[in-house]
Design brief:
The complex is a heterodimer of chains A (109) and B (233). Chain A is of the alpha+beta class. Chain A has helices at 4-17, 60-73, 85-90, and strands at residues 22-32, 41-45, 50-52, 77-83, 97-106. Chain A has a 5-stranded antiparallel beta sheet. By secondary structure, chain B is of the alpha/beta class. In chain B, 40% of the residues lie in helices and 20% in strands. Chain B has 9 helices and 10 strands. In chain B, strands 7-6-5-8-9-10 form a 6-stranded parallel beta sheet, with helices on both faces. In chain B, strands 2-1-4-3 form a 4-stranded antiparallel beta sheet, with helices on both faces. In chain B, strand 3 (57-61) and strand 4 (64-71) form a beta hairpin. Classes of the chains: A alpha+beta (109), B alpha/beta (233). Chain A: It holds the Pfam family XdhC_CoxI. Chain A: Residues 15-82 form the XdhC- CoxI domain.
C-alpha cells in the first residue's frame, strides 16, 4: 500500500538535501468535521512546490504562502483555519470544521 | 524540524519501527521518541496511548501544549490458506488498511481469479513466509485446516514477534494441534499465543461473518490496552 505520509517526509528530506528551503505543515488539532486528521502533513519547498494535504484542498493555498514566510524567517508558526461552510461544500464536505496547522522549517538548528 | 530528526523518522519508518515526534507548539521545541524508549519516557502514558491508537494528537502536560505525531507502521495480515473464509477476509482486512498477503501451496486455491488484487504466494510456508518479514505489526492467521500447511506456518509465527496469531479449528482440533506442535518443539507459551477457536464469539456462521469475527479479534489485540485485551480474548 502507498503510504503517503512516508512519501511526504521522504520528499522533505530529498528536497532539503538538494539544497531547497523546505517547510513542513502538520495538522495538530481539529474540531468539528475537519477533512484530514491530526498528523496529516504538507511539505513545501522554496519554489512553492508542495506535496501532501492538510485539508483535502480547502486551505492548501494559504498554507503554502505562510510556509514560504517560515522558510524565509526560520520561525515556526501556528495557523488556524475555519473551513467555512461554503468552502467545505465546494470541496465536497457536507459541513464545516476547524483545523490548527503547525508550520516549521526543515533543517533549522 | 531538525534535518537529523527528519532523517531518523524516515529511517525508523523504513525499518517498520514506530516513532513519535513531540513538539511544543508554542515555541517549536521538538524531540523524537523511538518506540523502544517510550517505557523510560516521562510522557510514557500519553505516548503509549497515542501509539496504541495509531493516532496523532495534542496533549496538555504541565500547562504545555504538546503535539504528539505518531508514525506507526502499516499493519500487515498474513493469511495462510487461500480458502473460502480468506476470500472474505482479504478484502475486509484491506478496507481496514492492512497490507494483506495470502499464502497457499495449492495452486487451485491460490488463484488470482479467487483473489483479485491480493498478493498471492503459491508456495509452502517454509519458502513463502521467511521473505515476508513477519514483525510486531503483523497479524497471522492459519486457515487451511490442513496440518501439513498450518503446522509449519504456525511454527514460523512462534519464532516471530507478531501481535496476533489465530488458527481455524474447534477446541478438539486445536487440542490435537497443540500436541502435534509440541512434538515438533513448540512450548506451552507458544501454543498459548494461538487464538483458537479463531475470532470473537459473535455466533458467526458464513465465511463473511467469520471474517468479521477474526478482524474484530485482531482489532482488539491491536488497539486495546493489555488488561482489556485479556478480557476480549
Amino acid at each position: 500500500m502507498l503510504n503517503r505520509d512516508e512519501d511526504i517526509l521522504k520528499a522533505a528530506e530529498d528536497w532539503q538535501k538538494a539544497g531547497h528551503g523546505v517547510a513542513l505543515a502538520t495538522v495538530v488539532e481539529t474540531w468539528g468535521s475537519a477533512p484530514r486528521p491530526a498528523g496529516s502533513s504538507l511539505v513545501i519547498n522554496d519554489d512553492g512546490t508542495f506535496l501532501g494535504s492538510v485539508s483535502g484542498g480547502c486551505v492548501e493555498g494559504a498554507v503554502v504562502t505562510e510556509a514560504l514566510d517560515v522558510i524565509a524567517s526560520g520561525k515556526p508558526k501556528m495557523l488556524e483555519f475555519g473551513v467555512a461552510d461554503e468552502t467545505a461544500w465546494n470541496v465536497g464536505l457536507s459541513c464545516g470544521g476547524t483545523i490548527r496547522v503547525f508550520v516549521e522549517k526543515v533543517g533549522q538548528s | 524540524m531538525k534535518l537529523e530528526t527528519l532523517k531518523t523518522v524516515n529511517a525508523e519508518r523504513a525499518a517498520r519501527r514506530p516513532v513519535i515526534v513531540v513538539t511544543d507548539t508554542d515555541n517549536g521545541e521538538q524531540r523524537l521518541v523511538k518506540a523502544a524508549d517510550i517505557a523510560a519516557d516521562p510522557l510514557r502514558a500519553e505516548l503509549s496511548k497515542q501509539l496504541r491508537m495509531g493516532k496523532s494528537g495534542t496533549v496538555e502536560v504541565g500547562g504545555k501544549k504538546l503535539f504528539l505525531n505518531v508514525y506507526a507502521p502499516t499493519a500487515k495480515l498474513v493469511i495462510v490458506g487461500a480458502v473460502h473464509i480468506s476470500q472474505a477476509l482479504a478484502p475486509l482486512a484491506r478496507s481496514l488498511d492492512y497490507d494483506v498477503t495470502v499464502v497457499d501451496p495449492r495452486t487451485a486455491f491460490a488463484s488470482p481469479e479467487r483473489f483479485p488484487d491480493v498478493p498471492l504466494i503459491a508456495e509452502w510456508p517454509d519458502v513463502a513466509l521467511p521473505p515476508l518479514n513477519i514483525d510486531h505489526y503483523t497479524a497471522f492467521v492459519a486457515l487451511t485446516h490442513d496440518p501439513k500447511i498450518d503446522d509449519p506456518a504456525l511454527l514460523h509465527a512462534f519464532a516471530r514477534d507478531c501481535f496476533y496469531i489465530g488458527a481455524l479449528g474447534s477446541r478438539k482440533t486445536h487440542a490435537k494441534r497443540g500436541e502435534r506442535l509440541k512434538a515438533q518443539g513448540a512450548k506451552d507459551a507458544d501454543i498459548a499465543r494461538i487464538h483458537a477457536p479463531i475470532g470473537l464469539a459473535i455466533g458467526a456462521v458464513s465465511p463473511s461473518e467469520i471474517a468479521v469475527s477474526i478482524m474484530a479479534e485482531i482489532t482488539a489485540q491491536l488497539r486495546l490496552p493489555a488488561k482489556e485485551k485479556e478480557q476480549a480474548a
